[in-house]
Each structure stands twice: as structure tokens, then as C-alpha cells.
Amino acid sequence: MKLAVLGARGLLGGAVARRARLAGHQVRAVVRPGRDSPAFPMGIEVVAGDLSSQASVLEAVRGMEVVVHAATVPYPEWPRFVPLFADNALAAAEAAGATLVFPGNVYVYGRPRSRFVAEDHPQEPHTVKGRIRLGVERKFLQAHQDGRVDLVLPRYPDVYGPGAIHADFRPVFEGALANKPCRWPLNADALHEFILNDDAAEAMLKLIGTPAAHGRAVHVPGPRAIVSRDFIRLVYAAAGSGEPIVRVFGRGMYRLVGLFFSLERAAYEMAYLFDDPILLDGTLYRSLTGSPHPSTPYEVGVPRTLDWFRTHRAIA
After folding, report:
1. What is residue 274's DSSP assignment?
2. How far is 277 from 271, CA to CA, in rounded Å?
3. What are the residues whose beta carbons fall under 8 Å from the beta carbon of 263, sequence distance 6 or more?
4. 256 located within any domain
5. Which of residues 67 and 316 earns the better pLDDT score?
6. Is position 310 within any domain?
7. What are the tens digits of pLDDT across the range 178-234?
8. CA-CA distance, 52 to 60, in Å (whole number)?
9. What residues contact 28, with CB distance under 8 A and at least 6 apart?
10. Domain count, the chain
């Protein structure tokens, strides 16, 4: 399989490129022009591509059989760039006659109506970013139905792992390595769900090879729901630190900090997921693929992530 990864420098895109190459596929990592690229495994072709330019994306994926659109931008840039990048990825995949793969998230559902959320849960996003993602997914699904592209749409919880640290989780890893208190959004005693980036990538490759999974969203859960404070404890234990002191970053603080910083202002609307979490049901994945979803335990994935962060925190 010839596979191009848009956003190959990112947490998920990088994992997809690595796992695909390890599986013997021909991989092209598409990265932003003018930026340093991470060290990719031997055999991965690295090309520059400007995702805001349709011509650039078309050229970057020429000759590929699969196009993985894993590129991300900071929250404040979503309204401008997420729809644009999606349109260009769709046009490029269509021009190449390639399967389009789009990693989904839980933003499209809004607030959960059930403890575990299946693929038929109502899509009622109450946030700007949720509506943006839903618009992109509907455009891709319509393109699949119209026969313009073949679509694969895995849906993940929060992704973590070696390669990058999300801004919400970075204070935990920094606090653990310094043996100092850490910050957590809204509620450290609520359940949350995470998936290791390598597991997310492995599941994606499995779904690409499962024709019955194409043209629909398929949930890929983490190993289990976990109380956020227990996840934090695992990070501190892996660092050899003591019991963590967790300072909850509440709604009032979000609003205050958001007056001065655009990232926190844009992140505030998604903070509800830390006290009203969406936990994914993986029944459909098992039914379609005939196998359980990859589920590296947190007790394994967290130390692996911390080891990476320890040596990369200056650039994470």
C-alpha cells in the first residue's frame, strides 16, 4: 500500500507513518515547508506540502493509494484552517483516486446522553469546534456516498503518547518530572479516556484493510475509562515522584486567563469534556474487524510517553 500522511510531524500522524512503514507499506510523510522535521524511520519519504494550497497538496500525494489527513492546527486557527485543509485533502485524494482517512474525535457529539457512546449517538455539538468537525465529517461522508472518494473514519478519545504532548496534559508531565504540583482542567475525579497513539495508528491501518468499515464512523476506545487523578498518579509514579498535588483549573480561571491568551480562550469551550466525559463503545470495531481494538494498558503507555517527554520536553 502506498500511503501519504498529511501532518506527519504530529502525535497521530507520526505514529501512523511509523506503524505503516513497520508493516511494510510505502510511506510518504508530508510536512509543512520550512520547518524542521523529526527523524522518521528509514525508508519513509519526506516531502514538503502546504496544506493551505490545493495545488501543493495534490502534488504531495500524487501516486498514493491512501491519504491520511492527520494535520492539526492550534484551536484559535480552527475556523480559518480546518475547513480549508479538509477541502484540499478531499480534492487531493479524489484526484489521486486514493482512499481518504480522517481521524475523528468526540467533539461532534456534544454532551453525552449515555455512559458509553456508540456510533448512532445523536450528533449535537454545542461548540464552535464541534460544529466545524461535524461539517467536515459530513462533507467527507457525502463525498463517499457520491463515489468521489473511499472514506475511512476512525473515531478516537484523547490521544497521548511519544511524539507530542497536548497542552492540557503537558503540565502533568512537567509536574511529574519536577516533583511539583500540576494543573488539570475542571474535575480531576471524573472519568476520562485516552488512547496511545501507536494503538490509534494500528487500529487505523486495520480499518483501512476492512472494506465493511469504510464510509462510516467507527469508534476506537482506549484500554478503559480511568479517573483522571489515577492517570495523573501513573505519570508521577513513572517519574519516581510522590503523590501528585493536583490544582484544578476551573471555569473562572479559564475565563480570566482567556482574557489575555487566545489559546486558553479557544480551549475553554471544550473543557466540558473533563467533567462530562464521552466514553466510546467499541462494539462496532470488534464486529467489523473480527478482533478487539488495540489497547496498550496505561501502565505501559504512560511510562513510554514520559520517557519520550523527558528527552524532548524542550520542543514538545
Report:
1. G
2. 10
3. 74, 75, 76, 167
4. no
5. 67
6. no
7. 999 999 999 999 999 999 999 999 999 999 999 999 999 999 999 999 999 999 999
8. 12
9. 2, 3, 4, 5, 44, 45, 46, 47, 60, 61, 64
10. 1
- Tell me what the mean pLDDT of segment 14-23 comes to: 97
- Kindly state whether residue 211 falls inside one of the protein's structural domains: yes
Q: To the nearest whole percent, how much of the chain has pLDDT over 90?
A: 87
For 54-120, where are the E strands, in sequence order?
66-69, 99-101, 116-117
Cβ 160 vs Cβ 194: under 8 Å: yes
Residue with cell 478519545: 157
β-pairing, 66-69 vs 182-185, is unpaired
Q: Are 271 and 171 in contact (CB under 8 A)?
A: no
3-state secondary structure of 46: strand
Question: Structure pTM?
Answer: 0.95
- Of how many residues is the chain composed? 316
Residue 275 makes CB contacts below 8 A (sequence gap 6+) with 186, 187, 190
b or e along 51-65 (b: 16 or more beta carbons within 10 Å of the residue's beta carbon)?
beebebbbbbbeebb
| CA distance linking residue 7 with residue 131, whole number of Å | 22
Range of the domain at 31: 2-159+197-221+278-295
CATH number for 83? 3.40.50.720
- Mean pLDDT across the stretch 149-162? 98
What is residue 37's predicted lDDT score, i.e. its pLDDT? 60
Q: What is the band of 36 on the pLDDT scale with cuts at 50, 70, 90?
A: low
State the pLDDT at residue 314: 63
Nearest to 240 by CA among 311, 160, 159, 302: 302
In a domain, 216, yes or no: yes
| Residue 218 identity | V
Percentage of residues of the chain with pLDDT beyond 70: 97
Could you identify the residue written with the cell 511519544?
162
